[in-house]
Amino acid sequence: MYKKTVLVTGGGGFIGSHLCERLLNDGCDVICLDNFFTGSKNNIRHLLKNPAFELIRHDITLPISLEVDAIYNLACPASPVHYQHDPVQTARTCILGAMNMLEIARRLHIPVLQASTSEIYGDPKEHPQTENYWGNVNPIGIRSCYDEGKRAAETLFFDYHRQYKFPIKVIRIFNTYGPRMHPHDGRVVSNFIVQALNHQDITIYGDGSQTRSFCYIDDLIEAIVRVMNRTHAAETGPVNLGNPTEFTVLELAEKVIKLTGSKSKIVFKELPQDDPTRRKPDITKARNLIHWEPEVQLEEGLQKTIAYFRETLKKS
Ligand code: NAD
Ligand code: UDP
């Protein structure tokens, strides 16, 4: 039987490594491409012996020629701390990286999926966010390299699709968490868990009333694969993928303290510029399109993530 070869850019990262694993389990040959800016070989070390798995160290801002049957474009730093570290490189990764992947897809006429983000809605004035909402984004702020970079990438995806007629899939991922998050990437779930396990102060930015909706990694991976495989070739998205249950950041901190049994205290720090006040996906489109519903509730997902970080911190 013909085995599909699938390219996963950013395959050494948090989401990408879980996706590589899933695609291998589904019987694909997987090429993982990563420059390891935020990813880690530890995330994929267990896959390196698998003959169906291949690793390429490469920066997607540079052109590359590969023969594959489908592309998942995930390469991009995702946490504010990391994407603000070298904002010009972030914009290059979003825009030039997208173009380089789209050029491969155009030449081979293959489907390409773009990992877009809820950040394209900015600090949303509509709640919950549907795919029809155009967003409220500061074009010149410290988050813009990522927000506007990802918006430009979406534009490129739709223009390439309209002009060259190959299949695209654009997914907008909302806050996702789970094992293999980088312990120091500054995202709220990993920060709170690492702080709690080390009995350090839990740092809430602002008063903790801002909200996010947290999706467990296994739920997201199922949705990503369904969007690529189960939707009609003409279906482009964008489609929101996330867990619609909304929590304040303060509620998250309290849950993490309870589940870890930590002695940590909560401290309040300055809220970063342009930090979105509320975020919650409307997933009606995903429900209808791929018959998908997140199954893992926050406490269960946090328990699994806490267990992962306990092991990781023991080793470091
Ligand atoms: P991550 O930082 O763990 O993974 C990103 C991977 O991309 C890393 O392995 C990194 O080394 C690699 N990378 C970065 N720049 C690169 C470049 N120029 N060339 C090659 N590789 C490069 O982040 P993640 O959470 O796994 O996010 C994966 C994708 O999903 C990103 O595109 C991100 O924007 C998107 N996303 C994630 C979330 C989330 O909550 N985790 C939410 C919305 C969107
Ligand atoms: N946050 C926080 N303390 C932290 C890290 C983050 O209070 O140690 C807040 C952050 O200001 C934001 C929310 O948690 O309001 C989610 O932050 P994250 O960086 O995880 O993702 P994003 O802002 O991109 O949704």
Q: For the largest sheet, list the strands in their spatial order.
A: 3-2-1-4-5-6-11
Element-level helix/strand string: EHEEEHHEHEEHEEEHEEHEHH
Tell me the total number of β-strands. Answer: 13
Tally of DSSP helical segments: 9
Structural class: alpha/beta
Describe this structure in words.
It contains 9 helices and 13 strands. It has helices at residues 14-25, 80-83, 87-108, 144-164, 188-197, 217-230, 249-260, 284-290, 298-315, and strands at residues 5-9, 29-34, 53-57, 70-73, 112-117, 168-173, 176-177, 202-205, 211-213, 215-216, 239-241, 246-248, 266-269. β5, α4 (144-164) and β6 (168-173) form a beta-alpha-beta unit. α1 packs across α6, α5 packs parallel to α7 (249-260) and α5 crosses α9. It starts with a strand and ends with a helix. Nicotinamide-adenine-dinucleotide binds next to α1, α3 and β5. Nicotinamide-adenine-dinucleotide binds at residues 9-10, 12-16, 34-39, 59-61, 74-78, 93, 97, 115, 117, 173, 175-176, 182.
SSE topology sketch:
Blueprint: E1 5-9, H1 14-25, E2 29-34, E3 53-57, E4 70-73, H2 80-83, H3 87-108, E5 112-117, H4 144-164, E6 168-173, E7 176-177, H5 188-197, E8 202-205, E9 211-213, E10 215-216, H6 217-230, E11 239-241, E12 246-248, H7 249-260, E13 266-269, H8 284-290, H9 298-315
Parallel strand pairs: 1-2, 1-4, 2-3, 4-5, 5-6, 6-11, 7-10, 8-13
Antiparallel strand pairs: 9-12
The site of nicotinamide-adenine-dinucleotide has 29 residues, from helix 1, helix 3 and strand 5.
